[in-house]
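quick one: flavin-adenine dinucleotide bound model?
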Amino acid sequence: MTAVAAEPTIFNRVVANDVCVGCGVCAGVAPPDTLRMRQRASGSYLPQEVSPGATRGLERRLLRACPFWDQEDDEDTLARADYRRQEGIRHRSELGYYLRCFAGRVADPDRHDRATSGGLGSWLARKLLREGKVDRVISVQAHPGEKPVFRYGISRTLEDLDQVAKSAYHPVEVSAVLREALAQPGRYLFVGLPCSVKAVKLAMREEPLLRTRIEYTVSLVCGHLKNRYFLDYLARCCGVEEDRVEMADFRKQIPGNPANRFAFGVQVRHGDDVKWHTIPMREVMGGDWGMGFFMHGACDVCDDVFGETADAAVGDVWLPEHIRDERGTSLVVCRRAEILRLIEDANAAGEVALEELPVDAAVRSQSAALRHRRDALPYRLRLYRKRGLWRPRKRFAGLATQLSLFRKCVVLLRDKLQRQSTRAFALQKPKPGLRAFRRRMLPWVFLYRLLYRLRSVYRRCARIYSRAN
Ligand SMILES: Cc1cc2nc3c(=O)[nH]c(=O)nc-3n(C[C@H](O)[C@H](O)[C@H](O)COP(=O)(O)OP(=O)(O)OC[C@H]3O[C@@H](n4cnc5c(N)ncnc54)[C@H](O)[C@@H]3O)c2cc1C
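yep, here:
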């Protein structure tokens, strides 16, 4: 890996140091026939010059649209420019600007069943389109039977929006849809992960045309993104070779279980029939999100969990009192008054069933992601510096958090699990099954579990000791 090169470009800094998330915004706003997105073996996307030297002279422009470059503006300043003038706006370091936060679900049980959690993500897109606030919606769609199954698309009608995917823990990129949005006049809603919303906001500053097209942005709350091996691996865990996968569902509800006990499922064709094969995530080695299996390198230097640059963010309320409904409960953070008004009116009309969520609870609902993204970030940045790797400037790099020895060990093990899982699956891929993969991963998974077990034993002993004294 390259540490530092003379003239910075997206290739010699962001890509070479493995912090490109493959969002595709740089390729979307680059002049035609200069830059395209290509897929690595792991399914992640990377920008590539259409011909050698095609982006000469565009270096600065491309960097300015990159969410993982050393921008002058960070999530705080980008969001401040858009939201600080909203009446009643407040700010909280972990979650950014907000007017109000809500917990709840769509009232239509059928739509709730089809959603990832409370269905507020797809409801908001439908609402903005139905009310004529936007003409088109840019979001991730599912294309059963095609490769890749999940990709960005543009919906023009409410029927088109039925194709919109549930949460796809799978790489997607926006270059083609951004080019289409630049070519086709209209008012667009952009739905994406925090990094791609930030990149779109950065690109809107560079591209006046894009600024006139993107009317609203909605972000998903995000713990981290996975590469495509995650889907391939889970398919094999279901006993299905990945080439046979027609469709995947990363969040299949298990009746009678709380929302966080979900399953993964793949749809496979058997003659004229299609059949779902599923496995509960808790039976999957690495099914624990905290282990960071197949995580993108870029996610380790991202400190935005709540999509802080978006007009609204939607996620899950991962709190004990909100996970009882197996179908899930949506978390909504509103930053723009027009969206807040839409939501409040729909709530009054019974279209959605939402209750106010105190901001402390909203933050607590993402405590695991915040611990990793925020608290451990300065330590990770120190580790990267020691390895001589370039990393972008971060908002919380100087945070004086003292990580416990336990947390430092978790960071080191997660780093190992993340890189080793992708490497081990690449070696396993030409052969059927998962034997070699499991053999390579088991010692690290064992150590990770042992670490947590030791901590719980230590805590129990400490409690007994303090009670006895
Ligand atoms: C990679 C990833 C990580 C996430 N991490 C967390 C987390 O740590 N905590 C948390 O609370 N929530 C997280 N979420 C969000 C969560 O999974 C749900 O998407 C969210 O609760 C919205 O549910 P819903 O029922 O309102 O959405 P739905 O009504 O099911 O709509 C889902 C929306 O997400 C869009 N979408 C799906 N996949 C992607 C993708 N890969 N990239 C961009 N857009 C996509 C679809 O286009 C659709 O608009 C994550 C989502 C993803 C994709």
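Residues 263 and 279 are 5 Å apart (CA to CA).
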